[in-house]
Amino acid sequence: MGTQHVLVDSTAATTHETSTTPETRQPNEDGLAGTAAPAILYTPDLQGAVLFPEPGYTLVSGTEPFLAAAVPEGIDAARAQFGRYARTMKSRWPNLRSIAAAHAPAHRAWTHPDEVTPGTATARLMTLLSDFTQGSCAATEFATGWWEARRAAQTEGERASGDLAKLLDGVFMALEDYTPDPDLREPGDLTDSDLRKRIHSIVCGEK
Asked: Which end of the chain has fewer surrounding CB within 10 Å, N or C?
């Protein structure tokens, strides 16, 4: 997450007031081992924090860059995973189910392109895909627009599963092999024409 150490404060977790002597820990498993609840862990620059209120779960908050590093799968995906975890651990920590319900995903996971809500970043991905396969969008325009919309989808916590997730993953892998600037391409990189053929093949495979 770009920080060399984090501060651990048990006082703040219960009184909402920062201790004058928080512990300094390394932001790794060894450095954080033995941290007991309640406690709050935060970066020295106050860009992010992790609240450990009681055994069984933590709550994460912070700036967009902090959350992108701490929760790379996206906020909604993390919330959905926590919901599944809460159901699995209901015998040991029955209170987790109510906590998961209070932090439910904001978006449901779309499984097919036709289900995507208009106006979302994922809808923009579908529009770009349609324009590109129909030949009304250049390869460089498609690649640039796709990465921008994909980042926006992740920021908004939009989720995909099933056929839609497979489609998006296929396009992602294809674009990983494509460099928009011909002068920077290496042997094996896709050309504009190669990319269009690959994407067309991916789309046809999803139908």
From this structure: C
Q: For residue 79, what are the contacts with CB-CB under 8 A and spacing of at least 6?
A: 100, 103, 104, 105, 157
Measured CA to CA, the distance from residue 200 to residue 183 in angstroms comes to 25
Tokens linked to 91:
């015998």
What pTM was computed for the model? 0.56
Distance CA 131, CA 139 (A): 10
Burial of 27 (0-12, 13-18, 19+ CB in 10 A): middle
pLDDT at position 18 is 62
Q: In this model, does residue 207 exceed pLDDT 50?
A: no
Contact criterion met (CB below 8 Å) for 105 and 71: no
